[in-house]
């Protein structure tokens, strides 16, 4: 047995964890973990700690439920925030499921005919101690950027004692996520093992806002699809899930005070997110330390309102020259100087915002791609003159933001409101950039907090080619039908993006983080998983670990690639249909798929 073990050690696995921790050392001792391992959850520092609970073991679990499925862990209290206790409880259950039921045998990461570790007189993990160093604040699951400390330390001794310490329950979650990534399934033994003991990790995020934006209006996704995306985000230590829930093409969000919005505006009356669905999604995110941020994009991208309230929308569905009035068909925008629109928005916000308040501190009011020409057909304005429109847009946004604030939320807007419309925005408003690094520099230059997500790097939809159909008379002009943001953004391109690129040192603190974007014109439930994963994980590592390594150099693809392949295997084991990024050959044979390697 001894000789088998040492043979194995000579070829032990690479670093394993994604995103890469700030400080990480490990050995090469194999230790095992069994399902009856006990978790101890203590509050307070060592020596002066209350044991909160030691009842976590498999008799309490339902380990065979898949991610995205409905299970007992998703019991949602009515309109209440998850507490820090809920968060830790949920994370412990996920940890069991991930290590014992959603794990994989790592043959791809070893040469042919590798020696899998054998059990023998192995060491088993005796306990996993979760040490919450401070009592969690009330709003632990809905902080503003930076309000919750997500740092953690993880120690795993050769003797099999594991300790995860953090200042918040969300930090404990991040530490447990890392912990699960140390372990592999075995092909014949009913326990999991790590070959990296002892392990010592001290970790914290670089950016406070680390998100994925999913457009669920161009195509409809089920609650299960969205939950699966949230789970994958959480597993990549992302802490924001931006739900772009309405757009010009459909309005799938049920608003009980305005029932026709989704009855008529959804693609089909049953392709909606009911009040219960929406609550379940928000809870599911929050309990994993992920804030679901809802966006109702306005005043552009609203033509689906015309199916129920035609008088509120100007320039609706102009054909065939829709492109004079909008970026996409159907054209249409909320009227800009209309008391009926104000009344409508009052009703919408009064219904919706209290239902998001338990789960987030933010509300996104959109504001991208507003087409001035549409207001020539707006009978409350009849003009495309910026001098006429700008003050009306200022009033429109001020009114909306005042209402958002009065309900206790912080507004987020797209960059155009600041940079193209020259609006004066409140200091609290977070400005989300998508067009360029120069835009980010301008936003922070104006003193605003910024979210990055440059479309040339972090748009996951790019490179699929056009979705518009071209008449034979013009088709040749568009050949070979590339989309505006081609080519497809390979994970390496996503990984090469530095959110601080072009931002002067003195303004870098205003870059809260960023989001990868999944616009869904050509993505539906069939290809969702592979369009998002594992590429969004590349953005997740940049946001958690930073674009530069500890020596200030650009992070190396050669270091990242096998770890990302491993994350991909873990996502697949969780039930997420993530794409491969390489052939097994490259992983099995180590350095043979590299170019220009200098060591
Ligand atoms: C598992 O938890 C149950 C309920 O608290 C307890 O009775 C049982 O002894 C525990 N088993 C182990 C192996 O800790
Ligand atoms: C883990 O917690 C248990 C129960 O409080 C305690 O007996 C044990 O010594 C702790 N182990 C470590 C490594 O802190
Ligand atoms: C969260 O709680 C902290 C401490 O109690 C408080 O300072 C902060 O304003 C709260 N934030 C939100 C968004 O409620
Ligand atoms: C917890 O907070 C303290 C400061 O109060 C800090 O030194 C430490 O790094 C934080 N994180 C962890 C995991 O202890
Ligand atoms: C815009 O034009 C229409 C039609 O000519 C007219 O009825 C309306 O009063 C005009 N609106 C404004 C604000 O001038
Ligand atoms: C806005 O509407 C009011 C009437 O509701 C009208 O008096 C005013 O001229 C309009 N403003 C513009 C710029 O058209
Ligand atoms: C914003 O300012 C720029 C530069 O001064 C100007 O070109 C643009 O027309 C303004 N936008 C609006 C909507 O007033
Ligand atoms: C690091 O990456 C940036 C892109 O983020 C690139 O512009 C720069 O040239 C790279 N630096 C080196 C030394 O390769």
Model description:
- The protein is an alpha/beta fold.
- It folds into two domains: 21-203, Chitobiase, domain 2, CATH 3.30.379; 209-554, TIM Barrel, CATH 3.20.20.80.
- It contains 17 helices and 17 strands.
- The protein has helices at 2-9, 84-101, 169-180, 223-235, 260-265, 275-286, 339-356, 386-406, 416-419, 437-445, 455-458, 472-478, 491-495, 528-532, 535-545, 557-574, 584-588, and strands at 23-33, 38-43, 50-56, 127-132, 152-156, 161-166, 192-203, 209-215, 240-244, 291-295, 313-314, 333-334, 362-364, 410-414, 430-432, 449-452, 511-518.
- The strands form three sheets. The chain has an eight-stranded parallel β-sheet with strand order 10-9-8-17-16-15-14-13.
- α9 links the parallel β14 and β15.
- α4 runs parallel beside α6 (275-286).
- The radius of gyration is 25 Å and the shape is globular.
- One 2-acetamido-2-deoxy-beta-D-glucopyranose (NAG) binds next to loops.
Short description:
This protein has helices at 2-9, 84-101, 169-180, 223-235, 260-265, 275-286, 339-356, 386-406, 416-419, 437-445, 455-458, 472-478, 491-495, 528-532, 535-545, 557-574, 584-588; strands at residues 23-33, 38-43, 50-56, 127-132, 152-156, 161-166, 192-203, 209-215, 240-244, 291-295, 313-314, 333-334, 362-364, 410-414, 430-432, 449-452, 511-518.
């Amino acid at each position: 047995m001894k000789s088998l073990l040492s043979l194995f050690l000579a070829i032990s696995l690479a670093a394993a964890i994604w995103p890469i921790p700030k400080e990480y050392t490990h050995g090469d001792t194999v230790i095992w973990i069994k399902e009856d391992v006990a978790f101890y959850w203590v509050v307070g520092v060592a020596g002066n700690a209350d044991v909160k609970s030691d009842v976590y073991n498999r008799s309490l679990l339902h380990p065979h439920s898949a991610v995205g499925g409905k299970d007992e862990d998703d019991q949602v209290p009515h309109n209440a925030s998850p507490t820090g206790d809920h968060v830790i409880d949920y994370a412990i259950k996920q940890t069991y499921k991930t290590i014992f039921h959603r794990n994989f045998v790592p043959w791809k990461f070893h040469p042919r005919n590798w020696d899998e570790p054998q059990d023998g007189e192995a060491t088993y993990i005796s306990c996993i101690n979760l040490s919450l160093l401070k009592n969690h604040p009330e709003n632990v699951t809905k902080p503003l950027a930076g309000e919750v400390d997500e740092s953690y330390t993880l120690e795993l001794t050769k003797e099999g004692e594991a300790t995860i310490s953090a200042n918040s329950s969300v930090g404990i979650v991040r530490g447990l996520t890392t912990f699960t990534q140390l372990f592999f399934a075995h092909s014949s033994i009913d326990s999991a093992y790590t070959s990296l003991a002892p392990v010592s990790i001290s970790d914290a995020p670089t950016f406070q806002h680390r998100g994925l934006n999913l457009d669920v209006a161009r195509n409809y996704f089920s609650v299960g699809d969205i939950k699966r995306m949230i789970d994958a985000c959480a597993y990549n230590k992302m802490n924001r899930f931006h739900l772009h829930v309405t757009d010009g093409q459909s309005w799938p969000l049920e608003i009980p005070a305005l029932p026709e919005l989704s009855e008529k505006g959804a693609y089909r009356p049953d392709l909606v997110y009911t009040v219960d669905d929406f609550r379940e999604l928000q809870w599911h995110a929050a309990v994993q330390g992920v804030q679901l941020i809802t966006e109702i994009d306005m005043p552009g991208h609203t033509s689906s309102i015309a199916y129920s309230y035609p008088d509120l929308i100007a320039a609706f569905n102009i054909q065939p020259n829709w492109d004079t009035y909008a970026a996409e068909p159907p054209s249409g925008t909320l009227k800009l100087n209309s008391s009926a629109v104000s009344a409508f928005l009052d009703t919408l916000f009064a219904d919706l915002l209290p239902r998001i308040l338990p789960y987030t501190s933010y509300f996104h009011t959109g504001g991208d791609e507003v087409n001035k020409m549409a207001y020539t057909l707006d009978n409350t304005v009849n003009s495309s003159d910026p001098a006429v429109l700008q003050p009306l847009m200022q009033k429109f946004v001020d009114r909306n933001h005042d209402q958002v604030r009065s309900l206790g939320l912080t507004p987020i807007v797209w960059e155009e409101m600041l940079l193209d419309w020259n609006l004066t925005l409140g200091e609290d408003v977070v400005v989300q950039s998508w067009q360029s690094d120069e835009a980010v520099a301008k936003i922070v230059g104006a003193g605003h907090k910024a979210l990055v997500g440059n479309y040339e790097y972090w748009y996951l939809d790019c490179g699929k080619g056009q979705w518009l159909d071209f008449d034979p008379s013009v088709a040749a002009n568009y050949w070979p039908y590339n989309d505006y943001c081609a080519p497809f953004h390979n994970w390496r391109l996503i990984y090469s993006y530095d959110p601080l690129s072009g931002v002067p040192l003195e303004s870098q603190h205003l870059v809260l983080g960023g989001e990868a974007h999944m616009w869904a014109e050509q993505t539906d439930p069939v290809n969702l998983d592979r369009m998002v994963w594992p590429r969004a994980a590349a953005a997740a590592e940049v946001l958690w670990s930073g674009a530069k390594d500890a020596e200030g150099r650009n992070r190396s693809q050669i270091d990242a690639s096998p770890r990302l392949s491993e994350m991909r295997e873990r996502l697949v084991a969780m039930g997420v249909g993530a794409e491969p990024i390489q052939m097994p050959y490259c992983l099995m044979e180590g350095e043979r798929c590299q170019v220009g390697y200098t060591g």
